[in-house]
Amino acid sequence: MTRTEHAEPAPRRRRGRPGYDQQAILRAAVELFNRRGYDATSMGDLAKELGLTKAAIYHHVTSKEQLLGQALDDALDELTAVVTEASREQAGVSAYQRLREVLRRSVEVLVAHQPSVTLLLRVRGNSEIELAALERRRWLDDRLAALVADAVAEGALRDTVPPGLVSRLLFGMVNSLVEWYRPDGAYDLALVADAITAIAFDGLAKHEV
């Protein structure tokens, strides 16, 4: 897949300065983008948040756009790997089983990358980086829809709901977690993943009349 950063050569890796490395700056940037909005946040705002000069931040990254690209890749890369793996036919593993596994793993990925996923869900295609991220999301929807269609063909799921709609609804259930799920809250990750999977597939299961 095409990465969300510009196609220009990657900046030369520099040694990190004491106190902050590139990952720490990225985490702080994502938190600030989510709190203030990406367009409303400047590198000066990020420097103030970290208690650094802008020059110190530019020691690690080249631009605000680079930080956005890295954040969106963080949100998308692992999920892309999960969906890619599930899309491959596997001996003795049905499309239905792979589809259930994708949904469960999607919950785990979202929780592991919740700040970056929150930012991803707020982009609207206002730049090439955002458009590339949206294209990657469409690819994920398409791959999941194809997997749903395969599960329908197996006779495991009802055929009365279009696969593309099912794909959007499944990802919609998972993405809703960014609004309320907290790792230290009342529900642990395994319980949430089990609940979403059960609710989704009990409703989609094909029942004999």
Automatic annotation (TrEMBL):
Keyword match Transcription: yes
Entry keyword set: DNA-binding, Transcription, Transcription regulation
Feature: DNA-binding region: 42-61
Transmembrane segments: none
Domain HTH tetR-type: 19-79
Keyword Nucleotidyltransferase among record annotations: no
GO MF assignments: DNA-binding transcription factor activity; transcription cis-regulatory region binding
Pfam families the record matches: TetR_C_24, TetR_N
SUPFAM superfamilies with a match to the protein in the record: Homeodomain-like (SSF46689), Tetracyclin repressor-like, C-terminal domain (SSF48498)
Coiled-coil zones: none
PANTHER family, sorted: HTH-TYPE TRANSCRIPTIONAL REGULATOR BETI (PTHR30055:SF234), HTH-TYPE TRANSCRIPTIONAL REGULATOR RUTR (PTHR30055)
Name of this chain's protein: TetR family transcriptional regulator
Organism of origin: Nonomuraea fuscirosea
Lineage of source species: Bacteria, Bacillati, Actinomycetota, Actinomycetes, Streptosporangiales
